């Protein structure tokens, strides 16, 4: 088989060969190949899901904060559930300090 015969056979399939080379470049070898593009889309979708989760969580927490600011009994219940330390005398001291706004002055200091 000579080179002329080889190039004649290739000449019949030149468009198919060009298409295959193009696909290989696009899928595997390019900096913005399809594999990386799929990975980036997956990461973007995960970030969007996290964004929605945190937006929902912010709304829930802000509603809970408003409820706790309005109702001192709910604040006490929340503190007992969350911290489980405020019992007896400690709770009395904490509530008196809370009422006298000591914590807000410490936070501003």
Plain-language structure description:
With 109 residues, the protein is mainly α. Helices cover 85% and strands 0% of the residues. It contains 6 helices and no strands. The chain has helices spanning 3-12, 14-29, 34-70, 72-83, 89-99, 102-108. α3 crosses α4. The longest helix has 37 residues, at 34-70. The radius of gyration is 34 Å and the shape is rod-shaped.
Briefly summarize what is shown:
The chain has helices at 3-12, 14-29, 34-70, 72-83, 89-99, 102-108.
Main features:
single chain, about 110 residues, mainly alpha, 6 helices, about 85% helix, disordered C terminus
List the SSEs and their pairings.
Elements: H1 3-12, H2 14-29, H3 34-70, H4 72-83, H5 89-99, H6 102-108
Helix pairs in contact: 3-4
* Biggest β-sheet strands, sense, barrel: none
Detail the poorly predicted runs: 105-109
Proportion of helical residues: over 70%
The portion of residues forming beta strands comes to: under 5%
Beta-strand segment tally: 0
**Rg:** 34 Å
Strand pairing plus helix content: what structural class? mainly alpha
- The whole-number mean of residue pLDDT values reads 80
Outline type: rod-shaped
How do the helices and strands follow one another from N- to C-terminus? HHHHHH
User: Counting H and I runs of at least 4 residues, what is the number of helices?
Assistant: 6
Compute the separation of the termini in Å.
91 Å
């Amino acid at each position: 088989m000579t080179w002329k015969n080889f190039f004649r056979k290739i000449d019949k399939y030149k468009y198919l060969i060009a298409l295959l080379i193009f696909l290989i470049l696009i899928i595997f070898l390019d900096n913005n190949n399809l594999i990386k593009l799929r990975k980036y889309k997956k990461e973007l979708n995960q970030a969007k899901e996290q964004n929605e989760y945190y937006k929902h969580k912010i709304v829930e927490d802000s509603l809970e904060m408003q409820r706790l600011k309005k109702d001192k009994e709910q604040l006490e219940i929340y503190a007992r559930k969350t911290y489980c330390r405020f019992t007896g005398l400690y709770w009395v001291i904490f509530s008196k300090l809370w009422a006298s706004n000591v914590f807000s002055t410490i936070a501003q200091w």
